[in-house]
Each structure stands twice: as structure tokens, then as C-alpha cells.
Amino acid sequence: MKADESDTKRRSGSDSNSHPSETPWNPNSVRDQDEPLVKSTLPGHEQTSERSTPEMAEQIQAIDQFLHILEDKISSHQQIYEAYSRLPSPGVHIISDGSRRLLLHRLAVIENKSKQSMLRYLRIVDDMKEASIPLSRSEWNTAIAYAGRCFVHVDALEVESALRIWKEMEQESGIKSGRVTFNILFDIATKAGKYVLAEMILEEMNTRALQYSRFSYVGFIYYHGLRGDGAGVRKAYKDLVEAGQIVDTVVMNCVIASLIRAGELPAAEQVYERMKRLFHAKTGEYVPSRDWRHSRDLGRILDRASRRLRHQPEKLQQLQAQQCLAPDVRTFSIFIDYHVHFTGELRRITFLLAEMQDLQIPIRGRIFIKLFRGFARHGGVKYTSWTTPRLEAVWASLLTALDAQVEGIQLLKWIVVWVVRAFARCCGRARALHIWEEIRDRWEVVDDNEKGAVEHLLRDILHDIKTDNKYSL
Q1: 248 near 302, Cβ under 8 Å?
Q2: Contact, 93 vs 131, CB < 8 A?
Q3: Cβ partners under 8 Å of residue 364, min gap 6
């Protein structure tokens, strides 16, 4: 399937509820140390004499640069993809199998999927298929996940794309789906509101006698929340516990978010209060939030441990007792997001921020995004508590955090968009343009696509100065 680069109808964004792959790929597991990193013959030069030509020298240099960037752990996805694009076509045909697998693995590991990251990955997949190089089940799973999860809102188009890749995986490539595949398909169908399809996916999973994993049970909790079924959320959580799965903060956050979606805010707040009590009873000391990679890896470890200790209840209980159930930044983000979107109660949000401080949980960029979004949504009207002085105070706090290089706080796309929109709503366009200029001086844009996306999203504010290069990023 060719990646459709013409689809620009929706903005891309994060997928905070997506399930990571449950079986991590080890780059060293497929690389033979004696295997050459590139094939000895370049396409189009099979009959060329040993004497190098300028064209061949340029191609060899491109390959060397690609391999160097690929194996550099700090290289970005954009750098890797651009280096790959400079290879003689088809690039996958001239590099070793180990390098191909490493390329796909690097492009698969990402915190928030986007349209751009999807196009990059599926471009490599298309090249692999055109070169008749088989994909592994894990690589097919990633392709399905990219096709169905790269936009904020999943609809029928994403579901259709994911199902088409799944069909190609099973019927054309002859690779049978595992439980990870079905977890991904179930998640995509759920987010698209295709609940009948989601049930059919579960039935197929049961027909194939595939056991549910930790990620399956968390997905069931989320599913019932989207359906507005609070009783279903509770039953799914009970099923998770009875299946011997380990409960941690990630699971509790899913329960809270699902109860809120089901219209049961008081029940969600009770869960939060219980988490606080457990936190104070256990240590009372702040446990630093793990980054998304560590959270992903911990989820995999707990899933494997639950299966291994299924028939050893005492050891399973010991492992459960070691888990942290303290609220984290995600917990507060869920509640703040609710009040930003539905109640507009700034006093309650201020209370939650004070709770974060008491629990020694640092504010991250996602919290600032929600605060500025609140000002853009509720400010600029009489008698609002979302006032200009309070907006200026939040902006000053963000600048202080940026100057101090606080971890997890950067000027990225969505924070820039909501800052400018907040000032436009509360203070007027002149102040918003002043803020935009200040952001422009601070913002180190490394991705032209992000730059264009921000300017497009702010076009209603910037439109009449669009021709003035002074305000261009």
C-alpha cells in the first residue's frame, strides 16, 4: 500500500492511549556481525569495472552517511529518513538485512505518532514490498498502528487503512496475527467508535485462542469508558485484577480517564483520593515520573511477570506490593483537561496545581498546553476568572521554566499554538502578535513541517501580516 501523502484533512497529534508493541525488537538479534552493512554492488552498476566513477563515489558517500546517522542513537527520525532518501533507489535493496531492520525499528520507536512519521514508515514498507523483501510480524504490526493511530481523531478512513494492511499481512504475506496485532486493531476500532467491529475483533481473537495481555485488559477499560459505561469500566478493571495483572499508576490513570468519559467524575475523584492515600501510606516521597520509553518498557516487564507468576500468587502479590500507585503528571493532566473542556473552573484547576506541588510533581509541557487552552476557551469575556493578569502570570512561569531548561518543557507546536490563541482571546491581536514575535525569537524550529503546521493553525491571527517576513518563522 502506498502512503497517501494527499490526505491533509485532519491535524496530527498524540495518541496518549495507544498500546506500545509488547515484544520489543532487538537490533542485535538480526544482525550478523560478519554481514556487510551494504551490498557489494550498487543498482545500475552491476557490470561496471572496478574503477570508481564520480557517480559511484557519490553514492557510496551517501550510504556511509546513512549508516552513520542510522546507528547514531541521538539521530532524529527526520535525519534518518532524509539520509535514507539520498540513497540510490531502491534504498532497502542495497543495505544489509540488519540495517533494514534497524531502520524500521528506529522509525517505529516514537512517543507521539503523526502524519509525517506515518508517511516515513510506510514509505520504507512500500520499498520493502517493491523489492520483494518480507516484513516481520512486528513490522506489519507497526504499519497497522501507524495507519490507524497517526491522527488525533480516528475515523472510518483510518480503520479502513489499518484493516487493508492487516488483510495484506495475513492473506498476501501469509503472516498470522498475534495478540499484539489484535490489540492494535481493537484499539483503532474503539477510538473510531466502531464498537461492533471492536467486538468482532475480540471474537476473532478468542476464536484463535489468543490470550489477553495487560494491554488487552487496559484496552477493555478504555473501551467501556468511551461507550459511557461506568459499570463496564469497573468490571473490566475487576477482570484485569482477577487475571493476575499488575496494577500500577498507568492502569489507575486509565480507570480515572474512563470513568470521567462515562460521566462519573465523583467516582474518578475517589480513585484519585485512594491513590493519594496509598502514596502517603507507602513512602510519601515523590517518585520521579518515568519518560514514555521507561513506561513502555515497564508495561512489557509487568505483562511478562504476570504471565510467569500466574500460578504463584504469593510472588505475584509481592510484586504488586512493590508497584507505585501514586498520582503522576498524567493523573493531573486528565483532571485539568476535563475542567478546561467542560467546567471552566479555574479555582479547581488551581487546587490541582497546588496538589501537584504538595506531591512534588513537576509541571510538564502538557500542563501548560492545557492551561493556555483554558484561557483561549474561557477568557476574553466579562466576569471570567480566566483574566489577563493570570494569563500573563502563566506565561511568565513558562518563560522561567524555558530559561531554566526544565525537563519536559519546550516550545513545541501545540504549546506555541495555544499560547498565541490565548493572548489573542484575552488581550487582543496586537498583544498576540507581540507574543508571537517573542516566541519566534526563542523557538528553534527543527522541522519545516512543524513550522508550516503552526502557521496554518494560526492563520486567522497572522493572516494579514503573512506577507511580512518579519513575522515568518
Answers
A1: yes
A2: yes
A3: 289, 329, 408, 409
Task: State the Cα–Cα distance between residues 90 and 350, nearest whole angstrom.
Answer: 55
Alpha helices in 31-136 (DSSP H): 54-71, 77-85, 91-94, 97-108, 115-130
| Per-residue pLDDT of the chain in tens (473 residues, 90 and over written 9) | 444 444 444 434 434 344 444 444 454 444 444 455 555 445 544 444 454 677 788 888 889 999 999 999 999 999 999 999 999 888 898 899 999 999 999 999 988 888 889 999 999 999 999 999 999 999 999 999 999 988 878 999 999 999 999 999 999 999 999 999 999 999 999 999 999 999 999 999 999 999 999 999 999 999 999 999 999 999 999 999 999 999 999 999 999 999 999 999 999 999 999 999 988 877 655 555 667 788 888 888 999 998 888 888 889 888 888 888 889 999 999 999 999 999 999 999 999 999 999 888 989 999 999 999 999 999 999 999 999 999 999 999 999 999 999 988 989 889 999 999 999 999 999 999 999 999 988 887 656 677 788 888 898 888 754 434 444 44
Instruction: Please give the grid coordinates belonging to residue 54.
Output: 564520480
User: Phi and psi for 233 in degrees, rounded to 5?
Assistant: -60, -45
Contact 218, 22 (CB under 8 A): no
CB 187 within 8 A of CB 22: no
Residues 402, 410: Cα–Cα separation, whole Å: 7
Residue 256: C-alpha distances to residues 90, 101, 261 (Å): 48, 38, 9
